[in-house]
Structure prediction request, 575 residues.
Amino acid sequence: MTTKKHRVLPGFGLSLGYSLVYLSLLVLIPLGGLIARSAQMSLAEFWAIATAERALAAYRVTFGCALLAAIVNAFFGLLVAWVLVRYDFWGKRFVDAFVDLPFALPTAVAGITLTTLYAANGWIGQYVEGVLGYKVAFAPPGIVVALIFIGIPFVVRTVQPVIEDIEPEVEEAAASLGATRAQTFVKVLLPTLFPALLTGFALSFSRAVGEYGSVIFIAGNMPMVSEITPLLIISKLEQYDVAGATVLAVVMLVISFVLLLGINLLQWWAANRHSGRHVDAGVQA
Amino acid sequence: MSAVRRVNSESRPVRWALLTLAFLFLFLFLGLPLLAVFAEALRQGFGPYAAALAEPDTLAAIRLTVVVALLVLPLNLVFGVAAAWAIAKFDFRGKSLLTTLIDLPFAVSPVVAGLLFILIFGRQGWFGPWLAEHDIKIIFALPGMIIATMFITVPYIARELIPLMQAQGKDEEEAAVSLGASGWQMFRRVSLPNIKWGLLYGVILANARAMGEFGAVSVVSGHVRGETNTLPLHVEILYNEYNSVGAFAAASVLGLLALVTLLAKTVVEWRMARETAMLNAELPPEKTDK
Prediction:
């Protein structure tokens, strides 16, 4: 830190002021409005709506499916990131760019396409449902499939740069000390990758919890069985039950904030662990 | 035992197994869906596909989608640059709070985002009675869809620019100002060329999201065909009417948008990497001319 000096660059007041006004109007006041609306209710009313049987079932479906999808994504995301960084193969750049498809493809398109693929007569569904007798589309497993699609890039993109940064000496040291490849992976590489992997998992989970577009087509949307919380909010709105929708939205919002806080802490943790090896180039004496 | 030769890699069979597994996963979950979009759209041949695309309602939906994106992007672009300028070039209290605030829309479910604006502008909302009195429609009309899309895409451009501008520091701008450049000159001649690729990258991502947004827009749209239906909403309507070719034809337009997005994004990434590499190559021998 240098001593406090006069600001040379112009535009501080303008840019900060504009950003604050914009964010307040677009984000802060609307979110405040949601909280204010729910505060008009008594606690007992709020609690009754938030813990109604159908709402509880919706939370179970939402969080259960999101958790399963995030676990699958953590595993395959790590695998894909590893393969992309460590192995050479033809078309690697193409595959690397392609991983971001779920970021670029609108969720409604993903929704109708996955439904068509996994329906009983679809390309995949005819084998999974027709031969194995396992129903995917129009049932909870379909939700998991959609959420895997939505969440995979989050894990790959968080883990990939960390794998790139691993210095070969670390693995060489482990190997020269007699560790097998598997031991090196579990004892040396995995702990290094763990904060990033956990962050990717949390990002994928957090996105999955709020996801709507891709899920509603494939879910079947049966109350108590395959109805996700965002859909329940919409069906309450369609019945002009704004209060009910507000309560569920507050519940989801609180959970999202807790997740966001957790993700920020994780990233801070990961960054601190990281800076132990790479001295920050920006810090000058 | 090949462990001595290549301590830093897996044995050959393991590598093959991992590669195969990764490819299988990517093919099943990403490749096949993308193929299916176009296969379903062309299922009855090219004629019905073209006819479905030429439907007036589909064309209107495409037009509306473009209009929404064209209105939303400039607003979020100006915000992104302003926020990144304040955060990256100055020190002030509450900076990390502001950064978190910018990220907030990422954490909010799109459906909840839509609901927020219903609570403000809807019939039972804060401004509902006043708006009804003055016959202004925001919810179930274009303004609501624009506001909801703005909310969803707020973070994209700012998030790209903040780390980029932080990494670039403020030496160049300070030099420009001390040499007598006005604020606008400094921004146009020094800052903008430095951030142009990052800016473009943010715009590409924000555009993909703005054009593809479904949940938030679905809550505030009136779902009137040909009027308040963006392309993703139109896909839903056609699909629910069992008009498979129509739905997938509309979806294929969005699929093309996704492919163009990925391509543009990759090109910009390469350009950015090349410029960083060139910059790093220039830097080390101390640039102390003058």
About this structure: The longest helix of chain B spans residues 244-282.
